[in-house]
Amino acid sequence: MAKRKTTSATGKQAARRTGETRQAELHFGAPGGEPSPRAAAADATNRAAGLSFRPVARKIRAEASLIHQSILAGKKPSLKFPLRSLANVSYDPRTGYFKLKGKNKERALTVGTVKTFAQTLKMMALAKELVETNDIATKREAYYVSKNWAEARFKEQPESDTVMEDVEAFFGVNREQLGFVPEEKGGDVAGRLVVIDKDAETGEPLHIDCTRFGSGAYSVPTSVEDLQFETDAEFILCIETAGMFQRLVKHNYWKQANCILVSMGGVPTRACRRFVRRLADLKGLPVYVFVDGDPYGYSNIYRTLKVGSGNAAHLNEYFCVPQAHLLGITPQDIVDYELPTHPLKEVDIKRARDALKNDPFILHYNAWQQALETMIRMGVRAEQQALAKHGLNYVIDTYLPRKLAAVERFLP
Q: N or C: the chain end with fewer CB closer than 10 Å?
């Protein structure tokens, strides 16, 4: 790959200087997942009995042993989970992601909670089985497995997903380590990047050139922890919509800008976020994010990519991209580029006001507060595709070059 100079080189150097690109290692026992002394003792007993030598399975057995002991002692068993919400997170720009404050919720076995308590234990048992047999289940499959749980079965998948996330947070691991994988893709990638994977059967390295997919793209796998990368790109451009990504790929924008294009497809999956984070960290690349100009694009899509979410605060250290900055579409872009707009809906206004009131990330940056207040005052939103007003390829020929010439102006 021939190296080209672009306006983003300064951003790449800055990313390396600031130290934002510290590589977080994803491993068993994320913050909040340390066993209690009693659980550690139960774990040792289980290991001595030769019940399981897989770390996650051992930990599940240890916690289950504590519950069993409580029942035998005539006590009320209980489980404590981190409270997963914006109310229980803080934001520190030095770390660059949402961190749990430490509040917990307790799930005790009572007449009123017996079903949820049983569902939690059944989900833990399913995870143990998956780990010990080296198998996987999609979130949807896990929901259907519960149909065999008699009165403990889930009525709808959102119930199943919530309990799965509680179990994940309880053990301080990610759900993939428990054997649960998402249904959705991890995102698409095109441009100046070679992904080094392994052959599933032989273990031999596979070099996947993301410049050689024609009109298609490389799909990010659900697990990206063992991937390695080769690139001479100057930056990563994360794009909200598949349509805009396809346009940039169709016209080989990555050649013109010497970059890597990543399609997020809306709110980015964990795999997509982890892929971008590892790539940016390992190669010292700045990350620019191109979303629709609306409160959802800002506070849901961009914010989740950059600092994580309240719901997954126990894992945000690994599934966020602190070095990301917002390229556009900004409220000022709507004015500067005379973009066609749509009126803000009530849900948009509520989302923006909630962010201004409750989101620790938005509250930390005056620039973001001003942007959302300006959007509310304007009463309009704009899509990426609105740039087509000036021509189908205006985004390639004019908008992106102009924006990338002044990366220091990007929203944090």
A: C
